[in-house]
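Q&A log
Question type: sequence-to-structure
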Amino acid sequence: MSGHGKFLRSWNGNEFQALSIKCCHTLLVPPMERDLPITSEQDTLARRIRSFVANGNMLILTGGDYSSLVFINRFFHFDLKKTVYDQGPFEKMPEASMPENAREAFANMPETIPQSGISVTTITKDSLPPDTKLIYGTPVSSPVFQLTYCESTIPDEQCQIVKPNGYSCAQDVIPRECPSIRQSGRPCSCGTILYIGYDFVDHHSHSIGESIWDKVLRAAVSVPKIGEPGLGEFTQYT
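Response status: OK
Response body:
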């Protein structure tokens, strides 16, 4: 999580529960080779992970292992597809095209960053949702981008039917729907998922010193959250 020396050792338990109901935190997740959470769609943990992001927080996922992609698709209902191989180099997007909250953090980063053998896992651009903002990319894929994930609730009359059967009253919505949803009197809140497709674990197992990808990671951690500090809209995992 954001802040030096702060570690979250498990998705389960009171620590993550406390983080997930309020803004504003950054949670940096290393490759989950053996630690991919296994849970059903309506399990409390699955709802909590989605609510963490929707409450205005930022989740940073790193590459080097297919599990990060599985995690995004499973818990946030995207359909991102891994590019077989993109040799790069990856160009930084023009400032006007980048995520607004990331422009300052990446302002002094290099205009291009390299592929490193096969250490960079990119995502096919055609599989990214329309609201995705690229930070680096090629014509076909991106190794660094930001997704916006939003939640609202179904109407009260529907909630009263599904909730007694163990189903959540929260639902995914696309960001541009939030203003009209709020006008209707229902909550709508968004957070961000920032993907960096570099294999940090493998790099640091056989290399000494800092790579440009370490600087990319530091820039990502410094990106401001888009939520407002305090309790989030989704505190009961309804």
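Response note: The first strand starts at residue 22 and ends at 23.
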